Amino acid sequence: FPAVSAEGPRASEVYENVHVLGDLSEEQFLRVMTVITEWVSPEQGCAYCHDENDLAAERPYTKIVSRRMLEMTRHINSDWTNHVAQTGVTCYTCH
To answer: What is the role of the protein in this entry (predicted)?
Structure first.
């Protein structure tokens, strides 16, 4: 997936109930969501983590788990730099 612009409105300004990635631009946010969908659930698509009739809903449970994993990844990369250095961690570190 090609890189996208960091400019423009933040995801938290455009979409409802964005807890973790709200600081990304709308383009970056859509790219991350697309990439995660391709990696995690290409067959089920967005419905694996979202109620397709209400994307902001706090269901299904996979949405909550995914959010926690994204929070953990960001926390490790920002607060554990002495341990992870420049390499950092990604979803692939554990999966």
So the answer is: The reaction center of purple bacteria contains a tightly bound cytochrome molecule which re-reduces the photo oxidized primary electron donor.
Domain count, the chain: 1
Claim: this prediction has a pTM higher than 0.85: yes
Cis upstream peptide for 2 (omega within 30°):
no
Who's near 50: CB < 8 A, 6+ residues apart? 57, 60, 63
3 inside domain: no
Domain range holding 50? 11-85
Q: State the distance between the two ends of the chain, measured CA to CA, in whole angstroms.
A: 20
1 occurs within a structural domain? no
SS3 at position 54: strand
| Burial call 11-42: b when 16+ CB within 10 Å, e when fewer | bbeebeebebbeebbbbbbebbbeebbeeeee
